[in-house]
Design a protein that fits this description.
single chain, 199 residues, alpha+beta, Arc Repressor Mutant, subunit A, 2 domains, four-stranded mixed sheet, three-stranded antiparallel sheet, 18% strand, elongated
Length: 199
């Protein structure tokens, strides 16, 4: 019976594309958590799966040139949010990185979320989920959301003219309605800084 669960788990994994992420919860229709856990552990030992983080598994992608490709921190965060039916938005230095304001990938990637706060270790990096108010999660524009979070991180007194120019140029790609909506959620100083673009 135990082997049967492992075979069913492997069958489900092989029906998905490489790079897909799995949790114990992904296989609740196959068996109980304990049995599924054991099956996943054996599949890690056999090389069918890799452990991306505690309780998170991946069927690795193999590239002809660079070899094994591991899932990004963002892919893992999105998979966790999808599993938990949670809203997440990038904040801090990770928002700056995604906007192109810095080339340095932060070791601690922080997301606001509407579920419980927690930290997940992914190799040398950490994903931190911070419980946030509904207002902080109400952004609708992907770019304007990042711009507001990046500006909050840089700070009113630290922002340079070059950074403002760069952010305004990036925001030209944002849907004007989304931008107007998101500016209403931003602190007053950010609204003042960016409103010339929005008008």
């Amino acid at each position: 019976m135990q082997k049967s669960i492992e075979a069913q788990v492997l069958g489900k994994i092989k029906r998905t594309k490489r790079g897909s992420l799995f949790f114990v919860d992904s296989f609740t229709a196959i068996g109980n958590a304990k049995a599924v856990n054991k099956a996943l552990e054996r599949l890690v030992k056999s090389g069918e799966l890799e452990r991306a983080a505690t309780g998170i598994y991946v069927r690795p992608v193999h590239d002809d040139y660079i070899g094994k490709v591991s899932p990004s921190v963002e892919e893992i965060a999105i998979a966790i949010a999808k599993r938990d039916r949670a809203t997440i938005i990038p904040t801090g230095s990770y928002a700056m990185y995604k906007l192109g304001l810095t080339t340095q990938v932060p070791l601690n990637v922080v997301y606001y979320t509407d579920t419980s706060a927690r930290k997940i270790k992914i190799g040398k990096q950490t994903i931190t989920f911070k419980k946030a108010s509904s207002k902080n999660l109400a952004f609708v524009g992907k770019t304007s959301m990042l711009a507001v979070q990046a500006l909050r991180t840089i700070g009113k007194d630290q922002i340079t003219e070059e950074e403002v120019k760069q952010i305004k140029a990036i925001l030209k790609k944002e849907n004007p309605k989304d931008l107007q909506h998101d500016l209403q959620l931003a602190p007053v100083w950010i609204r003042e800084l960016l409103k010339t673009k929005a008008e």
